[in-house]
Amino acid sequence: MPQINEPVFPEKSVSILEHGAVADGQTLNTKAFEAAIEACAKAGGGIVVVPPGTWLTGPIKLESNVNLHLERGALIQFSSHIEDFPLIAGFDGKSKHYQTTPPIFGYRLRNVAITGEGVIDGGGEAWRPVKKEKQTPGQWKKLTGSGGALTSDGKIWWPSKEAAEGEEYVKGLDKSKSATREDYARAREYLRPNLVQFVQCKGILLDGPTFRNSPRFHVHPIQSENIIVRNVEILTEWYAQNGDGLDLSSCRNVIVYNTIVDAGDDAICIKPAKIAGDQEPGPACENIVIANCVVYHGHGGFVIGSESRGGARNISVKNCIFSGTDVGIRFKSMRGRGGLVENIYIDSIQMRGIVNEAILFDMYYNEGSPESQATAGADSKSIEPVGDLTPRFQNIYIKNIVCNGASRPLLINGLPEMPVRNILLENLHIASAKGALCIDADSIRLINASFTIREGSPVVSLRDSRNIFLTKVSCPEGAELFLTVEGEKSGNIQLQGIELSKAKKGIELGIGVKPESVVKK
How far apart are CA 438 and CA 218, in angstroms? Predict the structure, then answer.
């Protein structure tokens, strides 16, 4: 990984007060922010200071060599009036698909920062839908009584009728080659922006602020490089729809540390996709270090996917805590959106109260819950041709994991035409309801693992998996069954240092599995 140099800014300081900003929470300060940032950039760069106070504003466009610095006690409050955020034809003005201007954004910048101890609030409640299933009856009654509109099935509330009807309308516009700004404007309340978006930028520093309550994703660099995120808090309600915390899309050379995320969707997420024209050929996401972070809630603590077609390589995640997330460590992709993900190193992760899997490899994303897909049976799987968009997950090393509470310690659900390959899992200590389950996996090494299982499922279940090495995997006293193996493709399963006598039954082979497929040493 190359050295990442922290952005350095001239000592020149410009206060938004010098350009007419008013901290009463009612005056719109969009022009004051624009004037202060422009003056700072024209002077060669420096620091734009946001003093203590509540600063209501529309979009803030950042410039190169500018550090937007929020002093302690400063609150940037983005407007709840959607018309304050203009529609744009992409960041380059050339797109045929219009989008809403993000609250804070930068395009093709060099050397840019957001620092300080202040708070940036996206006013997301004016934009976001809410699912009925994520509310108590009392909350739902209060929400629906406040106005807005429900979808036809009554299961999702939107802040307006225009927003509720926007999805199908926008799908039609996106297929059209002649849709205009005015066409998209009819659905502008549906077109939710991300709170902070950097596109094709190099040299980004986020240090100190709290980013909260986004209309959609919170911090979202795209096709950007040389990024440092530290001492940051990213917060939203657990039920915030699409409320991702930190999404790194086609980003390289990134360090994230000492950061807290409480998200409504994926918390810290790697999203490989298309790279920019001026980026060097190679994996879309590469050379990323994530350390000393804490995640409360979210669909996954650390996530790669669901799109993986750009590829990801050389990623380290270390010394993190995930509490109350749906999944702890989550790899997800699907046919048609796949690519090569390899050389991922995860070490020293503490988890508590994980709703579903502590560790999940799911190659059937968006086709139902991973548990239902994995347990549907071999007959439900078809083999498809391998192509450039087939997901490939390999060479992944996961060590020193402690999890107190999950549905499963490990679920691997690969594709029959492309198994999940070469995964090392070492020093896992996980208390869960069920045991580990691997389907269409190849070359999996599970070393020194203890699974405390509450239900009577096998400690380890394998289906159509081969080259599986279980070493010093403890068998809980009185377990119904330690290992079950199914599927004609299963083979070369080796057990070493395992006390099968603790289980009521040690090994059970399904129909078509040859007895010599499992060897105990």
Answer: 34
The Cβ of residue 101 has, within 10 Å, a number of other Cβ atoms equal to: 18
Instruction: Using a cut of 0.90, tell me whether the model's pTM lies above it.
Output: yes
454-468 tens-digit pLDDT = 888 999 999 999 999
Q: Are residues 410 and 264 in the same domain?
A: yes
Question: Cα(186)–Cα(153) distance, rounded to whole angstroms?
Answer: 22
- Of 340, 279, 338, the residue nearest 315 (C-alpha): 340
Q: How far apart are CA 93 and CA 154, in angstroms?
A: 37
* DSSP label of 434: S
Q: Do 509 and 444 sit in the same domain of this protein?
A: no
| CA angle at 447 for the pair 443 and 451, rounded to the nearest 5° | 110
Could you tell me if 190 and 170 are in contact, meaning their C-beta atoms sit under 8 angstroms apart?
Answer: yes
- Side chain identity, residue 11: E
- Domain interval for residue 497: 458-521
pLDDT tens for 77-136 read 999 999 999 999 999 999 989 999 999 999 999 999 999 999 999 999 999 999 999 999
Q: pLDDT digits over 146-191, tens only?
A: 999 999 999 999 999 999 999 999 999 988 888 999 999 999 999 9
Instruction: Copy the structure tokens of residue 348.
Output: 């020293």
Whether the Cβ atoms of residue 216 and residue 192 lie closer than 8 Å to each other:
yes
Decide if 398 is inside a domain: yes
Residue 411: DSSP 8-state: E
| Cα within 13 Å of Cα(494), Cβ side | 11
